[in-house]
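#struct-help
A.M.: can someone run this one for me? Single chain, 370 residues.
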Amino acid sequence: MNSAEARPHLRIERLVKRFAPGAAPAVDQVSLDVAEGAFFALLGPSGCGKTTLLRLLAGFERPDEGRILIAGDDMAQVPPYRRPVNMMFQSYALFPHMSAAENIAFGLKQEKRPRRETDERVRAMLELVKLTRLAERRPSQLSGGERQRVALARALVKEPKLLLLDEPLTALDRKLREETRHELVRIQQRVGITFLMVTHDQEEAMSMATRVAVMREGRIAQIGTPHEVYESPSSRFVADFLGAVNLFTGRVAGHEGSLWRIDSDEAGATLVVAHYGALAEGSEVAVAVRPEKIALTPGNGGANARNVLAGTVESISYRGEASTYRVALPGGKLVRVTVPNRAREGGERAPGDRVTLAWDEDAALVIEAP
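D.P.: on it. Structure tokens below:
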């Protein structure tokens, strides 16, 4: 592979942004690469710096340090309106007095593109987002999902090298959000433009993005595929932020090959975990186990697994496709367990029932103390 082929489509190098002299950076030494045609998600809690990073990419803010390169070009002196970037805002920001087609055409008309070219591009965008029959309707006559698709078409019609999406699904109800996720991915794959999305919704990021960067306090905590960051979180923060997780603190007691023993007072047991790195004996670690990886059986004992704990059902949350159990261990630690609801009726435990929790050594992960 030559250097041109290896060069990332978007490169961010040690980017820093402060909003006041001496203040803690909103973006702190952030570096990341995004490949051409990727659907990349910046994920993190409110205030972690992800929206500020998006505004730096768009040119709405100027960095104090670092560089932004798009397709190899340094954006330092390039104003927002000249960057090969477009942005889809959380509010959609559609013009209420214009039709869907007129909203999509607005940017092309501002650039004084030929009428024929403008009409052809708008027609293609309406077809792409499946709104051809609604072309003449104004935003007030469209549903939330339809307005979202108009905003997306308007952002794509100028064929940017990079499309920035700021919490694009927040304004939609839950069912429509789920439907629109699939549509956004379909459209991104169809047009091949690099998408960079900011969201605080981990389910949204995990279901749409090809790569995810988890942010915390202005820094990148971890970058990887959705599978990598969920199944192999690099810290307690990432493990806890990405879905539900049970964390058992303990101390390393020894190992036999790749099987490590962790003495955990919280679990009231010595846990056995498959870990292929080195751990210092006596060091404090956490054992992370996702709720869906724990088997729950009635009564005491009978489970065939490396790790077996007894507990009492404290509460049950029914979610349709699955139920989440909160199980209290003898020492007071609460463990979450997700059980698929395979049968139409029956089989559900009740609060106060004694149950056994079990998981194999490769279902858990050792996370070293921060």
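A.M.: thanks! The chain has two domains: 3-239, 248-368.
D.P.: also worth noting: The first helix runs from residue 3 to 6.
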